[in-house]
């Protein structure tokens, strides 16, 4: 497994998680709103913004068949025709150059998910630093091969893909010339729930495919994403919206700016907290050792007097003998006078 460079960012275990704000269709086809979302993502501390590059016609057919209607009653988009849904959610192609350039001016890396081969060529002409394959497109091997041949890193969401399907996608990318692959654990329900996120898949996936692994998270809030860092996630992608109450196709499971800011901060903290396997305390804890317990004189003792539990106690701080010597000390004779509050040492008794 090796690190992957995307723009000026290194994706790997030695770097904090790469945070992607997915604009999706939450811009509601208002370019001013899209630009404001980029401003907010930059202010919140995201490292990248991502678009989705498709048209309704490149995504599906404008057909009356029942096959092209969403029938799941628990879906956010129940009853919608696929074609009309994608029409509402699409990011106009003519926006892409302006949004990418604006994002770069704000210090953000900008890229997109192509949903057909023509979109790959379109994005290549815009000099994107990588391509993202959406979870529902992971079985579109011709699309993966097309993107992989561009010689740029490939981020692929795994969604509901089986181990064999992920292997096919990875092998397709590698055989097409792409070795810089990042897989994202993803649960393709909208919203997803903590209970069906299965973060333990992340280290297993990293071991199985020998590549960087992250999380494309559709749960509400940031808890799942922060937890994924402990599992080794090096990339976190979250859908983003300025105001959930104002709507947007993905608003229900998208983060608002203050939540995105919290995500950036807390994933950084979680990554720092991983550290390394270490016992015995950190250098920063060295001074705290003085507040352990040790054996102290609790009542004044005369030379020759016996040391007992009545004139000694185990208390904080730790400038006397360690508590493990307690039973060795009891019954010994004091060599000298000792005052209350004096730490006990070997030279103080026979």
From TrEMBL:
Q: What class of enzyme is it?
A: transferase
Statement: the UniProt record of this protein carries the keyword Transferase = yes
Q: Which UniProt keywords apply?
A: Transferase
Give the signal sequence positions: none
What EC designation does it have? Answer: 2.5.1.97
- Pfam families per the record? NeuB (PF03102), SAF (PF08666)
The cross-references to SUPFAM superfamilies, in alphabetical order and at most eight, read: AFP III-like domain (SSF51269), Aldolase (SSF51569)
Q: Does the keyword DNA-binding apply?
A: no
Q: Which residues form the AFP-like domain?
A: 294-350
Q: Give GO MF terms, alphabetically.
A: transferase activity
Q: State the name under which the record lists this protein.
A: Pseudaminic acid synthase
């Amino acid at each position: 497994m090796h690190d992957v460079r995307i723009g000026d960012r290194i994706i790997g275990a030695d770097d904090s998680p790469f945070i992607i704000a997915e604009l999706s269709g939450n811009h509601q086809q208002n370019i001013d709103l899209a630009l404001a979302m980029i401003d907010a993502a930059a202010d919140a501390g995201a490292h990248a913004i991502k678009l989705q590059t498709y048209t309704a016609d490149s995504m599906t057919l404008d057909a009356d068949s029942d096959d092209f209607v969403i029938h799941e009653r628990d879906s956010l988009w129940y009853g919608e025709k696929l074609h009309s849904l994608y029409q509402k959610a699409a990011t106009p192609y003519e926006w892409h150059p302006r949004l990418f350039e604006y994002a770069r001016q704000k210090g953000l890396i900008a890229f997109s998910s192509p949903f057909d081969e023509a979109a790959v060529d379109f994005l290549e002409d815009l000099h994107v630093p990588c391509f993202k394959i959406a979870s529902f497109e992971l079985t579109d091997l011709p699309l993966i091969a097309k993107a992989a041949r561009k010689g740029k890193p490939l981020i692929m969401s795994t969604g509901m893909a089986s181990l064999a399907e992920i292997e096919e996608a990875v092998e397709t990318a590698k055989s097409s010339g792409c070795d810089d692959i990042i897989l994202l654990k993803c649960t393709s329900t909208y919203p997803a729930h903590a209970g069906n996120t299965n973060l333990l898949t992340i280290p297993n996936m990293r071991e199985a495919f020998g590549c960087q692994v992250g999380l494309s998270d559709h749960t509400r809030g940031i808890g799942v994403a922060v937890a994924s860092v402990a599992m080794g996630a090096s990339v976190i992608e979250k859908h983003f919206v300025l105001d959930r109450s104002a709507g947007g196709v993905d608003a229900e499971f998208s983060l608002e700016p203050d939540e995105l800011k919290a995500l950036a901060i807390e994933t950084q903290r979680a990554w720092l907290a991983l550290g390394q396997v270490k016992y015995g305390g950190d250098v920063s804890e060295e001074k705290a050792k003085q507040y352990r317990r040790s054996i102290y004189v609790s009542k004044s003792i005369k030379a020759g007097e016996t040391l007992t539990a009545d004139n000694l106690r185990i208390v904080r701080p730790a400038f006397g003998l360690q508590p493990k010597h307690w039973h060795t000390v009891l019954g010994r004779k004091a060599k000298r006078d000792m005052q209350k509050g004096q730490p006990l040492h070997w030279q103080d008794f026979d």
